[in-house]
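Write out this protein's structure.
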Amino acid sequence: MKGRLWVFIVLDIINYDTFNYPHSLLLHPQVVLSHINRGGYIAWGIVPTSGEIKDVNIEGLMGRMKDVFQKAGSKKIDINLLKEKSLLTPSCGTGTLGEKEALRVYDKLKELKRSLKEVV
């Protein structure tokens, strides 16, 4: 039963660390597809909350997201529906960060959202 129990949990939003584990959710494409088909959302934790926040740029984050969506498409997941059912979040919580670092994370998140809207 290991690895299968969470399939039976009814969630509205699945949030995971996309920055560090970009394809882990796509190991279960049928689960992702049934989740978004029933109205659920995927929260892509794409902006790092670790020291890496200092080194990331929007182009790199966009590249990671494009890669994830291409992989999803190769798994027969409807990309348009997936985009519609997507949220962007930090990769983890920001509660342990200082104010300056936390603001950097959320600024990157806003910038990424604007940039993705232009290309999607």
